[in-house]
Design a protein that fits this description.
- By secondary structure, this protein is mainly alpha-helical.
- Helix content is 50%, strand content 7%.
- It is built from 25 helices and 15 strands.
- The chain has helices at 71-79, 82-130, 134-158, 168-176, 186-201, 209-223, 244-263, 266-277, 283-307, 334-369, 373-393, 432-437, 441-449, 459-476, 486-503, 512-528, 532-542, 548-563, 569-576, 612-621, 647-655, 667-673, 697-700, 723-733, 761-767, and strands spanning 23-26, 32-34, 50-53, 56-62, 178-180, 401-402, 429-430, 606-607, 609-611, 626-631, 640-646, 703-705, 716-718, 738-741, 752-754.
- The strands form 6 sheets. A 3-stranded antiparallel β-sheet has the order 3-4-5. Strands 8-10-11 form a 3-stranded mixed β-sheet. A 3-stranded mixed β-sheet has the order 13-14-15, with no helix packed on it.
- A hairpin with an 8-residue loop joins β10 and β11.
- α10 (334-369) crosses α16 (512-528) and α10 (334-369) packs parallel to α19.
- One of its GO terms (cellular component) is chloride channel complex.
- The chain crosses the membrane at residues 90-114, 134-160, 181-206, 250-274, 280-300, 337-357, 377-397, 462-491, 503-524, 530-557.
Length: 775
């Protein structure tokens, strides 16, 4: 790995590679130096060690999902009593309960705030329109939107840039083993909640559902930090969770809880975590995730019941986001199935085009966002003004429609919401386009899904609204506010689905509300490429199980068509942001390479009993996070691989100053004086740095026994193993380091170490461009 980025504490352990090791000791001038390897490979991994997280560029690291079996860990497990194991099990379920409770509360308060803030803005605008004060109405509408948008952008730009966007790509990357600064920090959680409220209330074509997934993950990470000395939360039991493996499980529960809170879809939340978010899954995690989403469902149900008395302001009766479509018998014939196939094909094409355009816009905005926080805020303000002008201006070109017969008292609508908004129309008329544009996104979806009357929305209105949502959704995603893609995609899909339903009305038995649902499903499948979880979420959203066969069919078709053009939107964003995501399959060209073909060098390693100055210099000169430890004579008959020592553990060992003046093994003394919790990972990346150590010249000449902190059972593969098999093994086991050992005896005991960066296409194809399938 390229070591030119030593300014940052970043993941470059992939550069710990090649054949020979060794550290010479102390040079004549007193400094510590390294011997050149006998068979040094100057091959270096030049894949980027930084990525875009939210709206900022920051360094990235890998996570330690592997159980690190060193002597301290084994001693800790042997010393645990049955009551401590029971406490650990109870605490896992207790934390799952707290994650569900907190995420449910945040989801409810988020909806409550959005409905009241947006409701006040829409009421103010509507009252001024009724008084025919059109210019004042526009400035009030645009001004409220601009203030809210500026507030959301300022929070993101100046406090937590990692909170920008939906957060789902970052959560997905974290669960794959990628960590980045402040991705799940408390400041990110704060900005995610309030930035999402302000952004959605500001009238942007964004949703709060994606940010809720990130919010749930942040809540889980906060609860799973294992305590905090800063805030004096050092409860003894919490020490069990000071590792990445347990935090990964909690964050998976948090991501599922976020979907459950956003859509009131507990089963859909579990399936979303399984299908899209998590990279590793097991039955025990399924139980805890399901329990977490069940808690969310109960919390939301309880809070909604409290709002039925009307004490929640403009939130009304607390509908949250539940779209009831026609619950009558769903009858369909061959022409209807052909229409569904058509919807699926169109949804796949439009969805893949949507992803392509989002990628272009994100790359363009990155050039603006990198100029500083001020430019981020100005970009958000420009998009806000554009959105306000379109939302307020387009209804003027729409024709007024007479109120339907039997709608006396409901048409025109009075209040902040309703599907019969009068806008500038005369009495007993309504403007159908303003009913969609001058409303919250949730209310607009309810209007599109409704089956009360086929002619509530004109064909021209549906076409204009589709173009508006499709284009503005692309333009809006990528600005520095928390923004989700679910709602814009559902809005666009529902509008063109209802449009198709209107056009096929004479030959179809399905009503336009069901066509809207199928259009939304096709567009979701075309953009996000999920099937099972989306199907269940939509059915839980609409409370209509009879639509299951048609929804399944349209999702399968749209995903199949869209896969012919590009990847899903979240996979595309992960790649665009530079996150080194490990796929669940190996690339075909990897079968032509062996593990030894991609390891980089030179490799740095330590003896079991090593000089303090040598270790300090290695940590100072490199930013590697894992070092091989070699057993050598006189401690063994021949050189052999002892295991791997982590950088963080070496720093703790050096800070404890457990040194010896003699080059002898004294690991038993370290085991008696240290505990496994002393080497536990600090929360939020606040671990020791090499600059925190104060070591005297005398101590530099002393020795330290590395065996107690060395993982003596690392995963190893032969150098001749297929790179494809190595990649699958690395991903499925959730590794950070994979040791490559020689096939023949008489050579150094380790050839190199594979990390996730060594499997990235840009590294492999950079070394062997002739195997690039695109050339």
């Amino acid at each position: 790995m390229d070591d030119r980025s030593d300014d940052h504490d970043i993941e470059v352990e992939g550069g710990i590679h090649a054949y020979e090791r060794k550290i010479s000791g102390i040079l004549d001038d007193g400094s510590v130096g390294f011997q050149q390897p006998l068979l040094a490979r100057n091959r270096k991994n030049t894949t980027s060690q930084i990525a875009i997280v939210g709206a900022n560029t920051c360094p990235i690291e890998s996570l330690d999902y592997e159980i690190f079996e060193n002597d301290l860990f084994k001693q800790d497990w042997r010393s645990r009593k049955k009551i401590e194991i029971l406490q650990y099990t109870i605490l896992k379920w207790a934390l799952a309960f707290l994650i569900g409770l907190a995420t449910g509360l945040v989801g409810f308060l988020n909806n409550l705030a959005v409905e009241n803030i947006a409701g006040f803005k829409l009421l103010l605008t509507g009252n001024l329109m009724l008084k025919e004060k059109y210019f004042q109405a526009f400035f009030a509408f645009a001004g409220c939107n601009l203030i809210l948008a500026t507030a959301a952008a300022s929070l993101c730009a100046f406090i937590a840039p990692a909170a920008a966007g939906s957060g789902i790509p970052e959560v997905k990357a974290y669960l794959n083993g990628i960590d980045a600064y402040s991705i799940l920090a408390p400041s990110t959680l704060f900005v995610k909640i309030f930035g999402s409220i302000f952004g959605v209330a500001a009238g942007f074509v964004v949703g709060k559902e994606g940010p809720m997934v990130h919010t749930g993950a942040c809540i889980a990470n906060l609860l799973g930090q294992g305590g905090s000395r800063k805030y004096k939360l050092t409860w003894k039991w919490l020490r069990f969770f000071k590792n990445d493996r347990d935090r990964r499980d909690l964050i998976t529960c948090g991501a599922a809880a976020g979907v459950a809170a956003a859509f009131r879809a507990p089963v859909g939340g579990v399936l979303f975590a399984l299908e899209e978010a998590a990279s590793w899954w097991r039955s025990a995690l399924l139980w805890r995730t399901f329990f977490t989403t069940a808690v969310v469902a109960v919390v939301l149900r309880t809070l909604i019941e409290l709002c039925r008395s009307g004490k929640c302001g403009l939130f009304g009766k607390g509908g949250l986001i539940m779209f009831d479509v026609n619950s009558g018998p769903v009858l369909y014939s061959t022409p209807d199935l052909l229409a569904v196939v058509f919807l699926g094909v169109v949804g796949g094409v439009l969805g893949s085009l949507y992803n392509y355009l989002v990628d272009i816009v994100l790359r363009t905005y990155a050039l603006i966002n990198e100029r500083g926080p001020g430019f981020k805020v100005m970009l958000v303000m420009a998009v806000s003004i554009l959105s306000s002008c379109c939302a307020f201006g387009l209804p003027w070109i729409s024709q007024c429609t007479p109120c339907p017969i039997g709608s006396e008292g409901k048409c025109p609508s009075v209040g902040r919401s309703g599907i019969y908004k009068s806008f500038q129309c005369p009495p007993n008329h309504y403007n159908d386009l303003s009913s969609l544009l001058l409303n919250t996104n949730d209310d607009a979806i309810r209007s599109l899904f409704t089956s009360r009357s086929e002619n509530e929305f004109q064909i021209s209105t549906l076409a204009m609204f589709f173009v508006f949502v499709y284009c503005l959704g692309i333009i809006t995603y990528g600005i520095a506010i928390p923004s989700g893609l679910f709602i814009p995609v559902i809005l666009a899909g529902a509008s063109y689905g209802r449009l198709v339903g209107r056009l096929l009305g004479p030959v179809s038995q399905l009503d336009v509300g069901l066509f809207s649902l199928l259009g939304a499903a096709s567009f979701l499948g075309g953009t996000m490429r999920m099937t099972v979880s989306l199907c269940v979420i939509l059915l839980e959203l609409t409370n209509n199980l009879l639509m299951l066969p048609l929804v399944m069919l349209v999702l399968l078709i749209s995903k199949t068509v869209a896969d012919c053009f590009n990847k899903g939107v979240y996979d595309q964003i992960v790649t665009m942001k530079g996150l080194p995501y490990m796929e669940d399959h190996a690339e075909p060209y990897m079968r032509n390479l062996m593990a030894k073909d991609v390891v980089a060098g030179p490799l740095l390693s330590f003896s079991r009993v090593e000089k303090v100055g040598v270790i300090w210099q290695a940590l100072k000169m490199t930013s590697h996070n894992g070092f091989p430890v070699i057993d050598e004579p006189p401690f063994t008959e021949a050189s052999e691989l002892c295991g791997i020592a982590l950088r963080s553990h070496l720093l703790v060992l050096l800070q404890g100053k457990r040194f010896s003046k003699q080059k002898t093994t004294f690991g038993s003394q370290i085991l008696r004086s240290c505990k496994a919790r002393d080497f536990a990972k600090a929360g939020l990346g606040k671990g020791l740095k090499i600059d925190d150590l104060v070591i005297s010249d005398e101590e530099m000449e002393m020795y330290v026994d590395l065996h107690p902190i060395t993982n003596t059972s690392p995963y190893t593969v032969l150098e001749t193993l297929s790179l494809a098999k190595a990649a699958i093994l690395f991903r499925q086991l959730g590794l950070r380091h994979l040791c490559v050992v020689p096939k023949t005896p008489g050579r150094p005991p380790i050839v190199g170490i594979l990390t996730r960066h060594d499997f990235m296409p840009e590294h492999v194809l950079g070394l062997y461009p002739h195997i690039d399938p695109l050339k």
